[in-house]
Write a structure and sequence with these properties.
Layout (H helix, E strand, L loop, with lengths): L13 E4 L14 H13 L1 H20 L6 E12 L14 E13 L6 H68 L4 H16 L1 H18 L22 E4 L2 H6 L2 H22 L4 E10 L13 E10 L7 H36 L1
Helix pairs in contact: 1-3, 2-3, 3-4, 3-5, 3-7, 7-8
């Protein structure tokens, strides 16, 4: 435990080993104004909205790609009127050269995933969805942290400005007293000059504080999706914040394992691995099964009657024979990209351990 601070909001704090930090960690300050400010930023911040939209795009892409597991079914209907040349045999049994032709047809095709092309493709887009998901979580974490830090800094600056103005007023009052004493002969000009210098020095510290506070207000407006000239309705001071009584302390490895940047790098590595399987499968044969059935007649009323139906079944196998080395080098590029993603993952983990160690030390 640590010593209690003076005031109702400074209760004794204690470290809780092995405890995790909640996603809404700012609620530990028990500030209604701060909670409302966070809610406002999560609802209006455009970077966070863009990250949410990107996740929706990635999720729909995964669902779309999963369609390769199922047969493709298409229906068609054609209606034509045509005249056959008299130099060749008539098309219809009626020997008519001028006729109408109506053909409804159902076509089915299916690509068996013999060499894992479909499976690795779906796996790749799923890994990409995870990348985007962890990007959104990183935006969420950064946004909430920036809002809390900016709000606390602005509250602190406001108190500094208030105290500075009080000191300026106090020094101005002292200067008036010294000037009066100087006029009456009870103080020297040196005393008055010293007080004037002290007042000027104190007054000079005020404009930088006002400037910094204005910049923080602009930043807070931007984080909450507002223009700088739009006031933030939620206002609070440092006295409204309560220090958390229970401070969670996790192992560095546990903190690193849940960092969005590490998880995103891991998902990127998974994506690179799946793309090796895609490049390998592209060098192997591809099998397509097809089927079609329908009816063709010279009149709508004759459709689907005896003798008008037709159907067909087929299988097609295609295999690359010579592509000028394109597929081979694409596979080698995918393997090199995997090594790149692996080293980036290791670098991200090392940086994360460094950040966590620095933070725990602080």
């Amino acid at each position: 435990t640590v010593a209690a601070a003076n005031g109702s909001a400074g209760d004794v704090q204690r470290f809780v080993t092995g405890s995790d930090i909640s996603a809404d960690w700012w609620t530990l300050f028990h500030s209604t104004a701060l909670n409302e400010l966070i809610d406002l930023s999560l609802a209006n911040n455009h970077d966070f909205k863009a990250a949410q939209a990107a996740l929706s795009v990635a999720r729909e892409t995964v669902l779309a790609q999963r369609g390769v597991y199922y047969p493709s079914v298409a229906g068609s209907f054609s209606a034509t009127r045509q005249r056959q040349s008299g130099q060749i045999a008539p098309t219809l049994n009626s020997n008519a050269f001028l006729y109408d032709l109506f053909t409804p047809q159902l076509s089915i095709s299916y690509v068996p995933d013999v060499f894992g092309l479909n499976r690795r493709t779906v796996e790749s887009v799923q890994a990409q969805e995870q990348e985007v998901r962890f990007q959104m979580i990183a935006v969420y974490t950064t946004l909430t942290a920036n809002v809390v830090v900016t709000a606390i800094q602005s509250a602190s600056l406001q108190m500094q400005i208030d105290v500075t103005r009080q000191l300026i007023d106090s020094n101005a009052g002292n200067l008036k007293i010294l000037q009066y004493q100087f006029e009456k002969g009870y103080a020297s000009r040196l005393d008055v000059a010293a007080q004037e210098s002290q007042l000027a020095q104190m007054a000079a510290t005020l404009p930088p504080l006002v400037k910094q506070l204005a910049q923080l207000h602009d930043l807070l407006a931007s984080l909450t999706g507002r223009f700088p000239n739009q006031a933030i309705p939620e206002k609070f001071d440092l006295a409204s914040l309560h220090l958390p009584q229970d401070l969670p302390v996790s192992l560095p490895s546990a903190l690193v394992a849940q960092r969005p940047d590490v998880l995103q790098a891991e998902a990127n590595l998974h994506d690179a691995s799946a793309k090796i399987g895609i490049a390998t499968a592209n060098r192997l044969p591809n099998i397509v099964l097809t089927a079609n059935a329908g009816s063709s007649a010279a009149a709508m009323s004759q459709l689907f009657t005896s003798g008008t139906g037709f159907w067909g079944l087929g299988a097609e196998v295609t295999a690359p024979i010579f592509q000028g080395g394109t597929l081979l080098h694409q596979e080698r590029a995918a393997k090199a990209a995997y090594v790149q993603a692996l080293e980036q993952y290791r670098s991200t983990v090392l940086t994360a351990f460094q950040n966590v160690a620095d933070t725990l030390t602080a």
